[in-house]
Amino acid sequence: MRCYVNRFTLLLVIAVVPVLLLYYIASTTTPSLQLVGGDFDGLEDIVQQLNDAQSDNHRLRTQLGGLQAKLGEHNFSKTVPQCEIIHICIVCAGYDASRHVTTVIKSILFYRHNTLHLHLVVDSISLPILNTLLESWEIPSVLYSFYSTSTIQQDVSWIPNAHYSGVYGLMKLQMPYVLLLDTDVLFSADVAELWSMFDLFSADQYLGLVENLSDWYLHSSGLTAWPAVGRGFNTGVMLMQLRVMREKNWAKLWRHTANKYLPEAGPTKLADQDIINAVIKDNVRIVHTLPCNWNIQVTYRSTFEPTCYSTANVKVVHFNSPAKYQVYFGDSTKDAVSDYFKNIYFMFLQYDGNLLKHKSLAAKCHHQRSGNSTTHPTIVILLDSVCQCYMPSVDWSSLPSYTVLHAISCYTVLQADLLEKSVELSSACYHVEGIRQSSRGRLHLYYLKYNSSVDTESGDITLVAQLSIDRLGVLELLCEHWTGPMSLALYLSDAEAQQFHDFVSNSPSISHRQNIGYHVVFKTGTHYPVNYLRNIALNNARTQFIFLTDIDFLPMVNMYSYLREAANSYDIHNRKLALVVPAFETQQYRPAMPYDKVELKKYVDTGQIQIFRYDVWPAGHRPTNYSRWFNSSQPYEVSWEPNYEPYIVVSRELVPKYDERFFGFGWNKVSHIMEVDAQGFKMVVVPNAFIVHSPHAPSLDISQYRTSQVYRTCLKTLKKEFQKDLSRRYGIRALKYLSND
What biological processes does GO assign it (predicted)? Predict the structure, then answer.
């Protein structure tokens, strides 16, 4: 049953909610970072970068708040009760679409006041990406379900289609949901306003569409032979009345129409839009025309009529040109309007998605549906027991079980407070543990296009590392030295993620590489969750072998092929064996990289290259035994010693994960090598491979370690806790680790 409120309450909500949201935005603005209690020499640049980022985020919130304020300038005859779930369906297939849909979702979440149910039609690529993203995002009052494109593809693949979206553009013909969106739209208003227009439909109407804002379908244009009523309608934003569609047998109707016009009109040029317009041409009564500001189309053929392209009352912007957000007209008036719309897009693109986790809805609803025909028909997924996970109070058997798609999975992001975990830390370190727990932000796997077939070959090896935005400059040089697969975890803000995308897209040496998996963890705090990031990169490597390194190290030339051969010759896939790669360092930013071991020896003798950290942390690599390595042509075994932290090649399936209790600086690699040793791995130094570390500015975490006694005390407490855990898990074998400090 729908939740009702009296008119006074409705007016109060409409008037007060935008004001409260603006107050919230203003009150949650993070103050500039202040460093207290210690000499933070060398941190000025880092602090300035953090403060600049916070200023940028404040600017974005202010601009978006101005857009939000527009909602209070208009009175709507219909409002949707906050207890009503709004159902949104989006077809999202592939790497690029998975990235674009995130911006669409952010724009919807920013303005919404209702619980949402996202119905995402996904392929094998986008399913794990979006599942992980939404699960890690933890957005309140958002439900989501996934459906396989493979179950739909066979129903539409018979239609010849010349549109750049391919078969996925046609899948909307089989999507009888309620609000259907493209991945290139952007909301600038509450989606509930659009949802309320269902109440304006007549008994015969079951499609709500905005008129096509170009002359594409006018036969005088000569652009298409597909029929339409006048200019036709654009299907990027589509309201679909399910009950009537089922009564009129929509599936049979569109198939009949497609078969009728295909011989004469030829392949579709605009995918589903051509067929839907042909259906409307023969059945004009089925469509309800929506106001044009609910689908403002930005394309080279747009008419830019002032009544539709006014920036005063923007609701939904649709970048339906193949050029998307890079469209330019060469006309100052058109470009000014287009730039306004693109600015909205870029604001949401860079907007901190974590802020949307804290937007609570005013109403407390149970979302129990009834068979009352006056309510909007919203549930048409396959009624499976798995759906009990997100709406356990609903009697699913009482709902009409229309099997439209196979539901791959149902999830809920309606979560209460996180379960408190016991923390074996002193009270002085509790706040540090809290920071560590909160550092696991949104996770977007495969942020850029990735060719998974490149690493399916048996016996291949992946370089595994993590980085932040300040290490991005090293990436090009690393790619020149390592031609094999890479799995990289990046810790970025939303704005930095766009900088990263632009950097890779414009790089001559990286843009063509599709054997690098970039996995973005969005920032949630100031501390760097180094071991969490390492595990993300490790877990998403796909080859048998992995090379665990850090982003600041450059491998010797041809080391990829050398390590791949070594890993296979030692059969480390089936053995607990770790191949140690000796580490060196240079103080030159772009050093002349030695080609082989002989040339490396010359660089060491002249002082251009040194053993890594031999002067400040000799214990870290002492067991590698560099004097023996320089004179050896054969591999040799070494034993673990306290504080040993080499860079190793291991079996992906056998190696233990990094301990995520360690974040920032200190013991993050040491603890991992201890666990590798505790599990019985032998360590063998390879004779003809090496890596060289390039210099960089100290991170905020290492500076805090050096200057903060509390930081060091907390790290020491974590060490003891970890050592005790090793003793409990590995028994007498782990006694030697208790003395490691």
Answer: protein O-linked glycosylation via mannose
Report the 10 Å Cβ neighbour count for 697. Answer: 12
Mark which of 328, 358, 388 sits at the end of a domain. 358
Distances (CA, A) of 97 to 120, 121, 126, 435, 468: 11, 11, 8, 32, 24
For residue 92, the enclosing domain spans 83-358
Radius of gyration of the chain (CA): 29
Question: How many domains are contained in the chain?
Answer: 2
Q: What average pLDDT does the chain have? A: 77
* Residue 567 and residue 468 share a domain: yes
The H or E element containing residue 651 is: strand 647-651
pTM of the full structure: 0.78
How do residues 3-27 score in pLDDT, each as one tens digit? 433 433 333 333 333 333 323 333 3
* Tens digit of each residue's pLDDT (9 = 90 or more) over 102-157: 999 999 999 999 999 898 988 889 999 999 999 999 998 998 988 887 766 565 55
Q: What distance in Å separates the CA atoms of residue 111 and residue 86, rounded to the nearest whole number?
A: 13
pLDDT, position 56: 53
Q: Tell me how crowded residue 264 is: count the other CB atoms within 10 A of its CB.
A: 9
Kindly report the three-state secondary structure assignment for every residue of 682-735. EEEECCCCCEEECCCCCCHHHHHHHHCHHHHHHHHHHHHHHHHHHHHHHHHHHH
Task: Indicate the residue type of 27.
Answer: S
Residue range 187-205: average pLDDT?
93
